[in-house]
Design brief:
Layout (H helix, E strand, L loop, with lengths): L1 H18 L5 H15 L1 H14 L16 H15 L1 H6 L7 E5 L6 H11 L3 E6 L10 H18 L5 E7 L1 H4 L9 H17 L7 E8 L7 H4 L4 E6 L5 H12 L10 H6 L6 H17 L7 H13 L9 H21 L4 E9 L2 E7 L10 H21 L8 H16 L15 H25 L1 H14 L1 E3 H7 L12
Parallel strand pairs: 1-4, 1-5, 2-3, 3-4
Antiparallel strand pairs: 6-7, 6-8
Bound molecules: adenosine-5'-triphosphate.
Length: 498
């Protein structure tokens, strides 16, 4: 609008001069010259910079307090940021400025949030881009983009109010993958080289403070040159949250939701083993949606529990299984659940035969604590639970079905693991050197031994399994407590393998 008004006013000048009898040609020539100068790239760039100053990007609003859990990652990141926050002191002490911090961890664990919080904490401007934005078919374009990003970051850092800029490079493995590994490697290599050049230039006699925060879930793919001292000096692991962290994340995402009295978020945290922060955010949102659908004024615990299943398995399938299929699924799942309770009393959280996503029924087990290492007994229990579904079908129905295929894969994987970590009669083995038949035999023996035990358990509980399966067919879903009551197991007292 303003530009149109200005052009209009400028055009009016020669018209006015012409009407007043003054020769407008010299004025027109002067205006033409002015237009050429203004359209020159350097001048346009300067004008743009002025524009940027007016529309300086806000410092991100996300603070470290808005990130649930991740206390170790936050601490390590904040230590790294001290160099930025106290740059003058660091310089006096002759400390080379930190140029890059790499956040490595699975998707949805809060890496972007951490980078934003880092900018908030250091009052830095924030420039974010993803590795894929630099990937181009044409040689040199990626490198040019890298240059532009860093030029922009330096400009922003110099602007009043921001002493520094954090450049966040998401999916950095796309841009910083090992050189020579791509078909169009020339282009990739040039882009990565440019990033290395830009990073090496940080802090060398430049008043603009720039810190690169990279994020990846595949740090193994990164070119070694990126991880050398002076580039990504620090690698901060951002792991999936454990139970306490899940609780903290749930608290963050329920801050803006009215919760019913007595909602036990710790219980929800316990039942969401393996969920990422992004899953938990979605879970809290789903729970609120369920409350709205039920016209409930507050979000009750049952909505959270229902939302767990939704987030895990996606929406319900349209096709309902036939009653024969349903019966098979019910027997199969009850077999898993019963044996789950035998090996780990009190471990079954939910048992359902409602088809959702790709899964026809499932048993969710809530581990008492998150485990980092597994014993032989743990792995044997996993095998037993995995085998129990198909075996229950075999014992109580007319044979097995394809529904057990995935279970068998799990059982095989666990048995293989036992052998390969030296917990079988073969002793410590070298995976490369152990003969395939010996490996196959050792795995087969483990599976056969567990299968015999599971068969005995199932045979001695035939009636109970059928009763629970019948009930499941009408109720579709049972929680762990109801299951234990139906099996006659209360207070965490488990069955024993005979
Ligand atoms: P990706 O690797 O897929 O890019 P990411 O690790 O960068 O994922 P974010 O984008 O930071 O993950 O997180 C996605 C969303 O998940 C966030 O917007 C937030 O709602 C939620 N979230 C993830 N981790 C946390 C956390 N620790 N605390 C609170 N919310 C979280």
């Amino acid at each position: 609008m303003r530009i149109a008004a200005l052009v209009g006013a400028l055009l009016a000048v020669p018209v006015f001069l012409g009407l007043s009898g003054v020769d407008p040609v010299p004025v027109l020539v002067l205006m033409g010259l002015l237009a050429v100068v203004v359209s020159m790239p350097q001048v346009r760039g300067a004008a743009q910079r002025v524009g940027e100053r007016r529309h300086a990007p806000a410092i991100p609003e996300v603070a470290f307090d808005d990130i649930g859990g991740q206390s170790r990652a936050k601490k390590e990141l904040m230590e790294g940021l001290e160099f930025l926050a106290q740059e003058a002191r660091a310089r006096r002490l002759g400390i080379r400025p930190l140029r890059g911090i790499l956040l490595a961890g699975p998707p949805g664990t809060g890496k972007t949030l951490l980078a934003k919080a880092a900018a908030h904490y250091t009052r830095s401007a924030f420039v974010a881009c993803a590795g894929s934005e630099f990937v181009e078919m044409y040689a040199g374009v990626g490198a040019q983009r890298v240059r532009e990003v860093f030029d922009r970051a330096r400009r922003l850092a110099r602007q009043a109010g921001h002493g520094s800029t954090i450049v966040f490079l998401d999916e950095i493995e796309v841009l910083g993958g090992k050189r020579g590994a791509h078909h169009s490697h020339m282009e990739y290599d040039q882009t990565l080289n440019q990033l290395l050049i830009e990073m090496d230039g940080i802090g060398s006699g430049d008043d603009a403070r720039v810190l690169v925060v990279g994020a990846t879930n595949r740090p193994d793919l990164l070119d070694d040159a990126l991880l050398r001292p002076g580039r990504f000096d620090r690698v901060v692991r951002v792991d999936l949250p454990d139970r306490e962290d899940r609780f903290q994340i749930l608290r963050v995402h329920t801050r803006n939701k009215p919760l019913a009295e007595g909602v036990d978020l710790m219980r929800v945290a316990r039942e969401t083993f393996g969920f990422s922060g992004a899953h938990l955010e979605s879970l809290a949102n789903e729970a609120a949606i369920l409350a709205m659908r039920a016209s409930a004024p507050v979000v009750e615990e049952r909505f959270f529990l229902e939302a767990i299943d939704k987030v895990m398995l996606g929406d319900r399938l349209d096709r309902r299984p036939t009653s024969a299929e349903l019966r098979r699924i019910a027997v199969h799942e009850t077999g898993h659940a019963l044996v789950g309770e035998v090996y780990r009393p009190g471990s079954v959280a939910t048992l359902t035969i409602t088809p959702r996503g790709q899964t026809l029924g499932y048993v969710r087990r809530a581990p008492a604590d998150d485990v980092l290492i597994e014993t032989r007994a743990d792995l044997l229990a996993d095998i037993a639970v995995a085998l129990a579904g198909g075996l229950a079908e075999e014992i109580l129905l007319d044979g097995r079905s394809t529904g057990a295929a995935q279970d068998l894969e799990q059982a095989l994987a666990a048995a293989r693991r036992i052998v390969l970590v030296g917990m079988s009669p073969l002793g410590v083995v070298d995976e490369e050197l152990v003969p395939r038949e010996a490996l196959h035999r050792a795995v087969g023996e483990i599976l056969a031994e567990v299968e015999a035990q599971v068969r005995a358990v199932l045979l001695s509980h035939r009636e109970r399994i059928l009763e629970v399966a019948e009930r499941l067919m009408t109720e579709e879903r049972m929680d762990g407590q109801a299951l234990r009551a139906a099996l006659g197991l209360g207070g965490g007292r488990g069955l024993r393998v005979s």
